[in-house]
Design brief:
The protein is of the alpha/beta class and about 325 residues long. It is built from 11 helices and 12 strands. Strands 6-7-8-3-9-10-12-11 form an 8-stranded mixed β-sheet, with helices on both faces. A 4-stranded antiparallel β-sheet has the order 2-1-4-5.
Length: about 325
């Protein structure tokens, strides 16, 4: 597959949950984007905006309510059991909480080799050699193979999670807030490791996070989500230099700038009110109840998702 050719196409993806008494929680509500081979797409937004649910629906931990996820030309949600097995080898996930995502009763070697065993990739000495190689790849050593998860720090556990994801030699990895549970000093190490692995192994990433400065650092393009919908998508530098959506503007104004003179003269955009409930989102534009630039049509019309500059998409009535 050539570079700049989509490895993943998400088309009008929806994931709704029935939360009882006839109420429907619209966690993801009509999201569309593509990811090209070898690139990193960052997905950002406040907690509860649906970004993790998007990742989990793409990899089919959740079934989609509506829409399509096309990976390497096939609709993920229409694969049979046999096809799912090879899909699971191609796409892997690194989870947010390295404490919860590793089985405490299994040794590190067995955790990492689980995928190798399922897919029958190696046995015996060759299996252990792979485990040792993977530990080395993520900056741990082979003495760690026979230990249990509780014997490691958070950063080391996340490295074990990355080794587990790499064990089946995937081409695409969804990293779901892989650094938010870690100390700040460790976060940069894990992000640098992900970048190094991408260069060495030609990986493609969907990197989900709420830390905008880290997302800018690792991503080629960045999508901004609010209440289950994408509001803006552009190249990383372009989005940070020229944000078009008022919500993106507010998010970026919260990032401190390490120059005190610029920082003092900058205006911080404080959003009024709370994020509405995804069970009962506002009519028209979802952001209008907190938007400093809301107009009358924002209440009645859903803004169209359109490309207003080359490769810069936004859903806003201002454009």
């Amino acid at each position: 597959m050539a570079e700049n050719q989509p490895i993943l196409e998400v088309r009008n993806l929806k994931k709704h949950f029935n939360v009882g008494k006839g109420a429907i929680l619209k966690a993801v509500d009509g999201v569309s984007f593509t990811i090209n081979k070898g690139e990193t797409l960052g997905l950002v937004g406040e907690s509860g905006c649906g970004k993790s649910t998007t990742g989990r629906t793409i990899i089919r931990l959740y079934d989609a309510t509506e829409g399509e996820v096309i990976f390497n030309g096939k609709d993920v949600h229409k694969l049979n059991n046999h096809e799912m097995k090879s899909f699971n080898r191609e796409m892997q996930m690194i989870f947010q909480d390295p404490y919860a995502s590793l089985n405490p009763r299994m040794t590190v070697a067995d955790i990492i080799a689980e995928g190798i065993d399922i897919h029958g990739l190696a046995t015996g000495k060759e299996r252990m050699k792979r485990v040792y190689d993977l530990l080395e790849t993520v900056g741990l050593n082979k003495e760690h193979a026979n230990r249990f998860p509780h014997e490691f720090s958070g950063g080391q556990r996340q490295r074990i999670g990355i080794a587990r994801a790499l064990a089946v030699e995937p081409s695409f990895i969804i990293a779901d807030e892989p650094i938010s549970a870690l100390d700040v000093s460790i976060q940069a190490q894990v992000v640098n490791l992900l970048e190094k692995l991408q260069k060495e192994k030609g990986l493609t990433y969907l990197f989900i996070a709420h830390d905008l400065s880290m997302v800018k650092y690792i991503s080629d393009r960045v999508g901004v989500m609010y209440l289950g919908a994408l509001v803006e998508l552009a190249g990383s530098d372009e989005l940070y230099e020229d944000p078009l959506h008022p919500y993106t503007d507010a998010l970026l104004s919260a990032i401190p700038i390490p120059d005190p003179d610029i920082e003092r003269s900058r205006e911080r955009i404080i959003l009024e009110g709370d994020v509405p409930s995804p069970i009962n989102p506002p009519s028209g534009c979802r952001f209008r109840t907190r938007c400093p630039k809301a107009m009358p049509e924002c209440a009645t019309m859903v803004p169209e998702w359109k490309e207003v500059k080359p490769k810069h998409w936004v859903a806003c009535h201002l454009y």
